[in-house]
Design a protein that fits this description.
Layout (H helix, E strand, L loop, with lengths): L1 H16 L4 E5 L7 E7 L7 E7 L2 E7 L7 E10 L2 E11 L5 E5 L8 H6 L2 E8 L3 E8 L3 H9 L4
Antiparallel strand pairs: 1-2, 2-3, 3-4, 4-7, 5-6, 5-8, 6-7, 8-9
Length: 154
């Protein structure tokens, strides 16, 4: 029994250790290769935050859930040292209802510096129809992830 408990606890700690920003080059075969960065939530690896360069700037969104309302308020808190920095944005859902676009350009947002400095991020998505959901993210490597996506050649 002790072995089972130890194995489960090790598995959980290893999965949380990898819940940080990951960078990746994508080649979909149709467009020029491009770079993305994403971070799985601590609750489930199917829900993730993502940075992607768009024509509007550095897009920041979440995906992997189901969003009922066309627009939902998103409360985001970044842990800087021992202090939480709080922000609120209005997100717009995708046509598939599986993605919620939060910021068209994180670079020009008021949370940009906190995004890069944070060790943790908590996000509450306030969907009036389906209810509120809370997700937690480890922000390790967030500055490198941003730089990786931002510095790509277009």
């Amino acid at each position: 029994m002790k072995r089972l408990i130890f194995s489960v606890s090790m598995l959980l700690s290893v999965s949380n250790a990898f819940s940080q920003w990951v960078t990746k080059s994508v080649d979909n075969g149709l467009d020029n290769p491009y770079k993305i960065a994403y971070c799985d939530s601590k609750e489930t690896s199917t829900f993730y935050a993502k940075l992607e360069k768009t024509t509007l700037g550095m897009g920041f969104y979440v995906s992997g859930g189901f969003f009922c309302d066309d627009y939902s308020y998103v409360d985001i808190s970044f842990l800087i040292g021992t202090e939480w920095k709080r922000y609120r944005y209005l997100g717009k859902k995708s046509t598939s209802s599986e993605t919620l676009f939060i910021l068209d350009d994180v670079t020009t947002s008021d949370c940009f510096e906190d995004f890069k400095k944070a060790s943790s991020m908590i996000m509450r998505i306030n969907d009036d129809t389906c209810g509120a959901d809370v997700y937690r993210f480890t922000m390790t490597n967030s500055t490198n992830a941003y730089n990786f996506v931002f510095n790509q050649v277009k």
